[in-house]
Specification:
The protein is α+β, with helices and mostly antiparallel strands and about 220 residues long. The mean pLDDT is about 95. The chain contains seven helices and five strands. It has one domain (about 1-210). Strands 1-5-2 form a three-stranded antiparallel β-sheet, sandwiched between helices. A two-stranded antiparallel sheet has the order 3-4. Belongs to the MMACHC family. Its EC number is 1.16.1.6, 2.5.1.151. This is Cyanocobalamin reductase / alkylcobalamin dealkylase.
Length: about 220
């Protein structure tokens, strides 16, 4: 429910819907690369592609909207920002309140070792660890769900030591991706997918077999 999200954030970040409004958080799993992105790129090869992942997600969520012709469905993507440069929604907070992934933050560590350093939080999924992404929100303004019960996200990094290790890896060594394997995972990105996301955006087209014309 939108109210779960708004309840844990200051008013500047509230979603402008009644508290009981139904919303879904959309995640992409490791298999998205082969099952969705590559087929999308092959199909759209002759069209203008600016950001393959963002356009692929938009393509699939537009199909979801088509499944509900009698409902208003509002979509907010993870990359969208407001005129004041704030994100339209805080993806990790949304994933946490929906019970999808646990958002580990500095406040989850009792004996904080970082002093005045800025420490960012990170979501960990009980099945995929850090090998997933939060892509957007689907909101159904006409559907109110006052009796929906909130699911608590799985606390899969439950010890103080592991939480410190997670936040250290994410904040100071995020490039090596080791924070993603803070727990045993069922599935992770393929080597091809890792190479794609490790490549500067301007060079990713070549990895997908796209020409500069497509770009």
């Amino acid at each position: 429910k939108v109210g779960w999200y708004n309840a844990v954030l200051p008013p500047a970040f509230h979603l402008p819907y009644p508290d009981d409004t139904l919303a879904f958080v959309v995640l992409s799993t490791p298999s998205m690369f082969d099952k969705a992105l590559k087929p999308f790129v092959n199909k759209e090869r002759l069209k203008i592609i600016r950001d393959p992942v963002d356009q692929c997600v938009s393509h699939h969520l537009s199909h979801v909207k088509e499944k509900f012709p009698d409902q208003q469905v509002d979509v907010i993507f993870d990359y969208e920002i407001l005129p004041n440069r704030k994100p339209k929604f805080l993806a990790q907070t949304a994933a946490h309140v929906a019970g999808a992934a646990y958002y580990y933050q500095r406040k989850d560590v009792k004996l904080d070792p970082w002093g005045k350093k800025k420490i960012y939080g990170v979501c960990i999924h009980p099945k995929y660890g850090g090998w997933f992404a939060i892509r957007g929100l689907l909101l159904f303004p006409d559907i109110q769900v006052p009796f929906l019960e909130q699911s608590t996200p799985v606390d899969c990094v439950s010890t103080e030591e592991k939480r410190i290790e997670l936040l250290e890896r994410f904040n100071f060594h995020w490039q090596d991706g080791r924070y993603r394997d803070i727990i045993e995972v069922k599935e992770r990105y393929s080597e091809e997918q890792k190479a794609y996301f490790a490549t500067p955006p301007a060079d990713r087209f070549r990895l997908l077999g796209l020409t500069r014309e497509a770009q």
